[in-house]
Amino acid sequence: MTDYMDLKESMLEAYTQWGAYWRDHQIEHLLSIFPEGQLCIKVDGKLVGVALSLIVDYKSLGDNHTYEDATGNYTFSSHNPNGDVLYGIEIFIRPEFRSLRLGRRMYDARKELCEKLNLRSIVAGARMPNYAEHADSLSPKQYIEKVKNKELFDGTLTFQLSNNFHVRKVLKGYMPGDAESREYAALIEWINIYHEPKPTFLSEEKMQARLGLVQWQMRSFKDYESLCEQIEFFVDAASGYKTDFILFPEFFHAPLMAEFNNATEAEAIRGLAKYTEPLKEKFSQLAIAYNSNIITGSFPVMRADKLYNIGFLCKRNGAVEEYQKLHITPDERKAWGLVGGESLKVFETDCGNIGILICYDVEFPELPRLLAEQGMDILFVPFLTDTQNAYHRVRHCAQARAIENECFVAIAGSVGNLPKVNNMDIQYAQSAVFTPCDFAFPTNGVKSEATPNTEMVLIVDVDRELLKELNHKGSVKNLRDRRKDLYRLGFTRQNVDLHEMDFAVR
Asked: Quick check: is 359 catalytic?
């Protein structure tokens, strides 16, 4: 970032007609998520040329996209380390250093990177800055053909074609405000002939996902093994319908606290923590055995004399990742002494990117928005509520998160009564899956919901293709239409683990 002022000056000189440039926080974020994709050339210690790029899943992006789509609404949320295409989002040279073949050197470096990362191709939207002069007599297609045949010269397009790129199609409205190109661009592509396709028979990402939501009945268990038998029953039942995800509620294992009824509430929840690690291992085994990704609800965890509320994503490939409850309710703080975690991340799965928030966290819109910035498709919310008013806080907030973040939201809670366990007497829940409210979805935004306060498993199919269509063609575009010129969202803590918080967009 020490060269940022040079970058800004170079970009302003290269695009004098626009006066536009990437802000420092955007470049910083780009360097944090994909440092090897950002190239520059220095002359006598001065930055004179820049090439910026992302890795994208081209099937998700599609041929009919805009510059805004390619850059994830300028947040770079379109970057996918598991994608198949290197997307060139920027390349410019200071005017006084042009005609020195510096641009070709950066393109050669991009090609080397594409080969090194075993990506299928390099794709970019090439402006046509001279097209406005010929728009009255030539269509974009005719203009491109004449540039190809060297009958006309176009500063940008000619350069791209000379670097062995071919035109894939013409894009309309690619970059609004580009009067020189009449908002047209040539979608160009360079094919990596050394690309070796990755095996996909086990790892291919699915656009459709089947969710299994466990609405758990609180009941007394004679021992830990009895609880595990009930857990496996639900996993077995849900997996019988070929579910991709199984969601359990928050603290569904609370019946085991009966063992500590003679202790204080704070001591009892800490006693319950001894079962967390065995349950984590049990769920991981079940995820593999029953071929389903399991969101385990949540459990108390002691770390450095502090008590956290933590759950686990147990993937069917054997991997285990954790999520933490960040916001602690006043009662949880008073009765149990829980403290909030500091980890928030999007999880990559074989059925898309998911986020997981525990109960109270979904009532804070900032968290799902940060996850949505990183391409979250499905938000899972395990919860535990005692009364109907507490439940409706979670429900209504979850439904709002689905609309404002253009994603699916699945919530699952526990029901019934639990005698002889302090602070866990009653529960109320109605598990459900919520959607955005647009023509491709239910009119009320409720995909499906369970019977209130009744033990059951809710099986629901969701289609992520509908989310992508909504993002491009929806009646409203909540993610795109935010006024980032007026407000912004980001992390304020400087000591946050950026490996986990790598999406701190400002």
From this structure: yes
